[in-house]
Amino acid sequence: MTDQPKTLCLNKGADKRLKQGHLWIYSNEIDTKQSPLKQFAPGEQAIVVNQAGKAIGRAFISPASLIAGRMISRDPAQAMDQSLLRHRLKIALSLREQAFDGNSYRLVYGDSDMLPGLVIDRFKDVFVVQISSAGMESLKDEIVSALEKVCRPKTILFKNNGKMRSAENLESYVSLAMGEELEDAELEENGVRFLAPVMKGQKTGWFYDHRMNRARLKDYVKGKRVLDLYSYVGGWGVQAAAFGAESVTCVDSSS
């Protein structure tokens, strides 16, 4: 039988934002007399209650962070485990498949997919996972298992060397969870093919969050001279060329 989760008590009125849909709990919104933050381990799951003692959900706790809580469910009894991870991944996959053709996209957008501290980018059958919260770090094995069941990847790479990790005292590392080692991964975005440097490149190796913005280039670049500053591997510039630009110059600060 598992232990009952600890309770995180909020100050008066601090549940207002959460009721409106916000997912973060700041440290100054917590009644630390009733629920001292030092009693929680980083990444521990807790039942969140308002000043009246009514349970309003469950959250990951980060006792040393300004964002001391990240909501994972509006149901206090619903723990973040492999079953819930799998369910949320299925929903995220369905949404991405509705929005994009092919199999190159950001699969998980952290809090927006109710998976706080987790970003997953898909490069066909290669999945790059970036974790920025202690709660998700404690579920690494469950994340891999859920991904295997939902998406059947060939490769899963943990790219956990982002700056956000230091805020939760998490170590920086890059490691292969399954599959063969690789430097680059293929993707197709807006009809243009690329190789993303997933192992040594920035963040997950690509910036899928600008995919739709780059698609708008078609409306502006035909016959134009294009300058792509801080171009990285040319996501904007190369697509501008494919969309009919007269010339493209890519400049980046990194060799």
Structural notes for this entry:
By secondary structure, this protein is α+β, with helices and mostly antiparallel strands. The protein folds into three domains: 7-73, PUA domain (Archaeosine Trna-guanine Transglycosylase, Chain: A, domain 4, Roll); 82-189, Transcription Regulator spoIIAA, CATH 3.30.750; 207-251, no CATH class. Helix content is 20%, strand content 29%. The protein contains six helices and 14 strands. The protein has helices at 16-19, 82-99, 134-137, 140-151, 211-215, 235-242, and strands spanning 7-9, 24-26, 45-49, 55-61, 67-73, 104-109, 118-123, 126-131, 155-160, 173-178, 185-189, 192-196, 225-229, 247-251. The strands form four sheets. It has a five-stranded mixed β-sheet with strand order 1-3-4-5-2, with no helix packed on it. Strands 6-7-8-9-10 form a five-stranded mixed β-sheet. The longest helix has 18 residues, at 82-99. The chain is elongated.
CATH level-4 homologous superfamily of the largest domain: RNA methyltransferase domain (HRMD) like
Give me the strand/helix succession. Answer: EHEEEEHEEEHHEEEEHEHE
Instruction: List the uncertain runs.
Output: none
Q: Which second-level CATH architecture of the largest domain applies?
A: 2-Layer Sandwich
Largest sheet: 5 strands, mixed
Residue fraction in strands: 25-35%
CATH class of the largest domain: Alpha Beta
The number of domains is 3
CATH topology of the largest domain: Transcription Regulator spoIIAA
